[in-house]
Amino acid sequence: MLIRTRLFARHRELLGDDELVLDLPVGSTVGDLLARIGGDGGPLAPLAQQSAVAVNLRYADESELLKEGDEVALIPPVSGG
Q1: What residues contact residue 7 under an 8 Å CB cut-off, 6+ apart?
Q2: Which range marks the domain in which residue 58 is found?
Q3: Sequence-ordered alpha helix ranges (H) in 1-81
Q4: Those residues with Cβ within 8 angstroms of residue 18's Cβ, 6 or more apart along the chain or in another chain
Q5: Would 80 be classed as within a structural domain?
Q6: What's the total number of domains in the chain?
Q7: How many Å apart are CA 19 and CA 8, to the nearest integer?
Q8: From the centroid of its chain, how far is CA 44?
Q9: Distance from CA of residue 59 to its chain's centroid?
C-alpha cells in the first residue's frame, strides 16, 4: 500500500524533498513506517524515533494501523529559547 509521508524542517533539509511515498505491506503501523524511514543508517535515522507523527492531520502513536492513501506527517523535535 502506498503511504504519502510529509517532511518538515530538518527532515526536509536532510532528504532534499518535502515528501516521501513509501510502499508498505498491508497491516503496517506507524512504527513500521518509522523503522523503514530510520533504517539502514539513512539520513533520517537519528531523527525518526524522536519525531511526533500525525496521520491524516491528527497525532498518532506507533501502534496505529495505516491504510492505503493515508498521509503521514513526520514532525521533527522542536527546540529553542
Answers
A1: 15, 17, 18, 19, 20, 74
A2: 2-75
A3: 9-15, 30-38, 45-48
A4: 6, 7, 8, 12
A5: no
A6: 1
A7: 9
A8: 9
A9: 12
Would you call 63 exposed, middle or buried from its count of C-beta atoms within 10 A (0-12, 13-18, 19+)?
exposed
Cβ-contact 15, 22 below 8 angstroms = no
Does residue 81 form part of some domain? no
- Residue 12, amino acid: R
Is the C-alpha dihedral spanning 14, 16, 18, 20 positive or negative? negative
> Does some domain include residue 21?
yes
Q: 27 lies in a domain?
A: yes
- Specify which residues 75 forms β-bridges with: 52
**Among the ranges given (2-6, 13-17, 50-54), the one the predictor scored with the smallest mean pLDDT:** 13-17
Instruction: Give me the CATH number covering residue 59.
Output: 3.10.20.30
- Count CA within 13 A, CB hemisphere, residue 37: 30
- pLDDT tens-digit series, residues 31-56: 999 888 887 677 777 777 788 999 99
- The residue written with cell numbers 524511514 in the block is 37
